[in-house]
Amino acid sequence: MQSETTETDALQVPVLVVGGALVGLSMSLFLSWQGVPSLLVEKHPQPARLPRARGYNARTMELFRVLGLEEAIRAAQLPIAQNQGMVRVESLAGREIARLDEDGQADLSALSPTAACIIGQQQLEPILLDAAKRMGSDIRFNSELVSFEQDETGVSAVIRERVTGREWRVRAHYLIAADGAHSSIRDALGIQTQGPGTISYSTNVSFEADLREALRGRRIFLYYVSNPHLPDGQAGLMPDDNERRWFFGTPIHPERGERREDMTDERCIELIRIAVGMPDLEVKILPAYPWDPIKVGVWELAARYAESYRKGRVFLAGDAAHTVLPSGGLGAGTGIQDAFNLAWKLALVLAGKAGTGLLDSYESERLPVGKLVVEQTLQRQFYRTGTAESTLVDSADLIFGFRYRSAAIVAEPGANEAPLTQHPSTLCGEPGTRAPHIMLERDGLQISTIDLCGGRWTLLVGDQGTLCNEAAHRVSKRLELPLSVYTIGAEHGLKDVEGRWDAAYGVGAAGAVLVRPDGFVAWRSSTVDEQPELALEKALVRVLALC
Ligand SMILES: Cc1cc2nc3c(=O)[nH]c(=O)nc-3n(C[C@H](O)[C@H](O)[C@H](O)COP(=O)(O)OP(=O)(O)OC[C@H]3O[C@@H](n4cnc5c(N)ncnc54)[C@H](O)[C@@H]3O)c2cc1C
Prior knowledge:
Layout: E1 10-18, H1 22-33, E2 38-41, E3 55-56, H2 58-66, H3 70-75, E4 86-89, E5 96-100, E6 117-118, H4 121-134, E7 138-140, E8 143-150, E9 155-161, E10 167-177, H5 184-189, E11 193-208, H6 212-215, E12 222-226, E13 234-239, E14 245-249, E15 251-252, H7 265-276, E16 284-286, E17 297-306, E18 310-311, E19 314-316, E20 322-323, H8 331-350, H9 360-385, H10 395-400, E21 439-442, E22 445-448, H11 449-453, E23 458-461, H12 469-479, E24 484-487, E25 495-496, H13 501-505, E26 512-515, E27 521-525, H14 532-543
Parallel strand pairs: 1-2, 1-10, 2-7, 4-12, 10-19, 23-24
Antiparallel strand pairs: 3-6, 4-5, 8-9, 9-10, 11-14, 11-15, 11-16, 11-17, 12-13, 13-14, 17-20, 18-19, 21-22, 21-25, 23-26, 26-27
Helix pairs in contact: 1-4, 1-8, 8-9, 12-14
Flavin-adenine dinucleotide binds next to helix 1, strand 3, strand 8 and helix 8.
């Protein structure tokens, strides 16, 4: 579907993705996996130029698992992957003020066949890039979106090659803005943001030192240091390899003229010694980024979300849609989940199997999630630093407990009054919520419902279900929508190992549950419907915006 162009002809592509970091690469990957050709442009010469994220929660890993990438990602985990929790201290060697267990402590193993993963962005982005290329994604670095305009049939964009200065044109059906917190696409669309915006800046210093004495055997993920001798009384220490390599960060105020260039090795060492609580500690400062002549990096810490995730044929995803504080490790995962949500919808619309109305559900579903995640990372920051009162939503609710409300869900009575999140153990397959994980046995091997449904339209049917395989397949054929049908029960080759189908899915032996490619329940029926085939077709027609 793609062809090279002259300066005047535009390259034609179904989807143009702008931004080649975690979210843009995921978008391109998920589109290719759905069979949708896309072009991704990234202005920098390589991925993971300024790595930030290291923690990816179990829900995000479920999505990578669908694509068969889990093994490769886990193989590249950081040595600190087994470290536990966070602590607030006066100094590393000194008094512990509080153990901070709002995150990473909850046991989520009953909720998912997979678990969170700790991997550096520098390791993850190349894995995503390789996989996307293998699946056929067209990814071009050193290529910057200069301008774009949209009309009723598509988006026209101008791309500049940064090395040669050559400009060329692209014509796409849809444009995805994965261009980060300061999204120029969002600004060009005139989409406003809500939230406090930029809150502070933090230095990012990489160093080597022997901290065994100060650690006293602890293997903690993150140390918050509250100490009046540090800038603003705050700093953070994070192990890189559980050996000698560490990251250190402390507030910096560009608005007062403070510059990272002024953070000499001597000043960094002075601050690190205070944070560690060892005045004579031997410290070697390393470059934060290998290509940067200035050793100290600066992170912007911001909290804002876009008032709208879409304007016409242009969609915002990732930090362009919601920029969150690092506290909670939720930013990248939320963006990757945006990408998954949008990719299957675009694939169906571009293939003519769904109405364009399906695309409206992207904002209805993902904006409330982005907004809540922004709010909760702020609350987590207050909690961790002890700087203000905080109200925390449980991590499990934030990871697995969302409820979507959109036209792509056949809601049940009362759904509008239900909370946006709740603990996943209290959910039972309600439309709009993630299809719960239960263990089944097939051919002597255990398989989770998450893997059974993974990435496909799936109908799960109770063993007394009136919706037979043939009927479901007739619907699938009429709508030209591949649909996998599984009847839960030992006699149907899928033993409900723990007998949890009834409680987890809430439709009983006679019912059926329709699961979307993103693993969310679209519709369910517990009654012995007189016309089950018609009921399923009606549900799908509605969800796919075909009526
Ligand atoms: C210190 C810190 C720690 C964090 N830790 C975690 C964590 O552990 N887990 C987690 O889930 N999240 C974490 N986050 C949040 C996470 O890093 C971000 O949410 C995520 O990286 C955003 O990815 P993105 O692809 O949306 O945006 P970005 O990473 O900002 O990427 C946008 C890309 O678009 C490119 N671009 C911009 N404009 C153009 C243009 N015109 N043309 C071409 N390319 C363009 C940019 O060069 C850039 O590569 C952390 C954040 C911080 C600050």
